[in-house]
């Protein structure tokens, strides 16, 4: 299939596909006419990348998953390197949630103090 069809079926722009290619996430095969050629396996890679970036993974974080699929595994997370990325991402998310929780607690405390100060005085 050509780049336009892969883009349509993968739900992504041709520009993004070219970018994936430049990063080495997608193979750069060209036909005799010089046009990019893709197959169902490439569509599978694109869907894996989109799935992971859709939940907050950076493009570079998708590399172990893509390589795992390229190595013939049924799932992109069947390899130890992919599991390591999951663990790292989960730790990042936990840290982010802790920071957000602390910020929320601070805002709540400031709100309570402000509400105490803004109560009308009883005369």
UniProtKB/TrEMBL annotation:
Keyword Transcription regulation: yes
Pfam family, one: MerR_1
InterPro entries listed in its UniProt record: DNA-bd_dom_put_sf (IPR009061), MerR-type_HTH_dom (IPR000551), MerR_fam (IPR047057)
Keyword tags: DNA-binding, Transcription, Transcription regulation
Residue span(s) of domain HTH merR-type: 1-68
Entry keyword Amino-acid biosynthesis: no
CDD domains: HTH_MerR-like_sg3
Protein known as: MerR family transcriptional regulator
Organism field: Saccharothrix lopnurensis
Organism phylogeny: Bacteria, Bacillati, Actinomycetota, Actinomycetes, Pseudonocardiales
